Amino acid sequence: MSSNSKSNPAIQSVQSIRSAKPTPGLRERKKAKTMAAVQMHALRLFREFGYQATTVEQIAETAEISPSTFFRYFSTKEEVLITDNYDPLLIAAFEEQPSHLSPLQAVKGAILSGMTDMSAEELATMRERNQLIMMVPELRAAVLNNLTQTMEMIAEMVAKRAGRKPDDLAVRTLAGAVIGVNFSAMLYYAENPDADFSSLLDEGLSQLEAGLPL
Predict the structure, then answer these.
(1) What's the mean per-residue pLDDT of the chain?
(2) pTM of the model
(3) N or C: which end of the chain has fewer CB within 10 A?
(4) Is-contact 146 133, C-beta < 8 A?
(5) Which domains are delineated in the chain?
(6) DSSP calls for 89-128
C-alpha cells in the first residue's frame, strides 16, 4: 500500500536526509505504533493458522483491541499486510533531495533513505509481509491497487519538482517505471528471501536510470 543507490550525489543526499526528516507528532507516533503492533500480531496468526483461516476478530482479540478499533486503522484484512506509514516519510525525503538531481535520481535517493533507516525488526516484518503478499492471490491483487496509488503519489512528487502536470505522460511513465522496478524487486525478494531488498531496489533503479541495458 511500500518501499536505491545511484551516483555519488544521490548517496550523499541519503546521508543528509536521515537527519533532515521531520519528527512525527505524538498522534502520528501512537498511530504508527498501534498499526505496527496489530500487524505483528496478525503476522503471527497468519503464520500459525494461515492467512485464509485467520479472522479480523482473532487479530483484534490478540492485539487487545476491539474490531471497531481495528477498522479505524485497516478497512479490510488485506490492508493489515498492504498498509504502512512510509508515504509521508518518502515525500519528505524526496523534497529534501538536492535540486541538481534529476527527478528519477531524487526518487531513488528518497527510497534508499527510507530503506536505510529501517530497523532489523522492520526489515524482518517487511520480508514476511512480502512473502505472504506474493503467495496469496487476493493479496497480490490488493498490492497492485496499492502500487497504483503509490504511482499517483510519485507522479505528484515528480510533477512538482519538474514543473509539469501529474497527468503528463512523461511524468506518469517515470512514476510507472519506478513502480515496475518495485514490483519486480518484490517478486524476486519473495523467491529469494535471503536477498537484500534495498540492494534489489538499488540495482533495479540503477538499471532504469541507465536506460535498462541488457
Answers:
(1) 84
(2) 0.76
(3) C
(4) no
(5) 8-209 (1.10.357.10)
(6) HHHHHHHTS-TTS-HHHHHHHHHHHHHHT--HHHHHHHHH
Nearest Cα to Cα of residue 78 among 12, 129, 21: 129
Q: How far apart are CA 60 and CA 65, in angstroms?
A: 5
% of the chain with per-residue pLDDT over 90? 54
Buried b (16+ CB within 10 A) or exposed e, 168-199: eeebbebbebbbebbbebbeebbeeeeeebbe
Query: At what angle are helices 87-95 and 137-162 packed, to 10 degrees?
Result: 20
Residues listed for the chain: 214
Three cell numbers written together for 152: 499517483
Q: What is the CA radius of gyration of the chain?
A: 18
4: nearest Cα among 150, 181, 148, 175: 181
